[in-house]
Amino acid sequence: MFITSKNAITEALSKELVKILYIKYPLSKREKEIIKFAERKKIKIKIVDKKEMESIIGKVYSIAADIEENAEIGIDLFLDKILLNKDLKEKRKPLIFILDSITDVHNLGAIIRNAYFFGIAGIIMPKDNSAKVNEKVYEISEGAAYHLPILTETNLNRILDKMKDKGFWIYYASEKGETDLENFKFDSPTAIILGNEHSGVRETIKKNSDGSLVINSLNDFDSLNVSAASAIIGYAYSIFKN
Known about the structure:
Blueprint: E1 2-3, H1 6-14, E2 18-23, H2 29-40, E3 44-47, H3 50-57, E4 63-67, H4 75-83, E5 95-99, H5 105-117, E6 122-126, H6 135-140, E7 150-153, H7 156-165, E8 169-173, E9 179-180, E10 190-194, H8 203-207, E11 211-214, H9 226-241
Parallel strand pairs: 2-3, 5-6, 5-10, 6-7, 8-10, 8-11, 9-11
Antiparallel strand pairs: 1-4, 2-4
């Protein structure tokens, strides 16, 4: 997979996920800094002309990276690593976002970026009927997708059952939620489900949850973008844990 965002390339280099860095002159100061970073990381650098860059990437860029995608891991290892991570102050009360049918890549990338910014422990999303973690998502997340554990699974209800067995409490966000976010206590391992941009969380997922949350509006306008909701929830979590 190829990425062309400078921030995303820098993050991929820091995580040692870049296989080859392609460059086409002339270069900006920022791009020269990226190349120096790649050299320190001993990454293979290939100089190409305009025609070669277009044939490889599909468009002409001055810099592009061929990267390895983050490897998928099983749910048990995913949860155990989150619960036992000694580097996290919130190791006994992590928050995970579960994304139910988020199909827009811009929303997915923004949610990942928000989650990493606010210290969310990881993201779980379905393999089907969901945006893929592709080049666009990596770039929209500004490289956060390289740092945040992201697990894709076939059956979300099975995942919810597994998480409950591990001590997680499961809630879904809804404009008709039972508990106000400002009154919610993140005092145990928690997962919050964010639903589809138009239809919300599926009924089968709701029934397998422990409750629901609402972000209160200050007027009668109840429409909030799912990525914006993720930022508000992330902020509330960061305030509680600190």
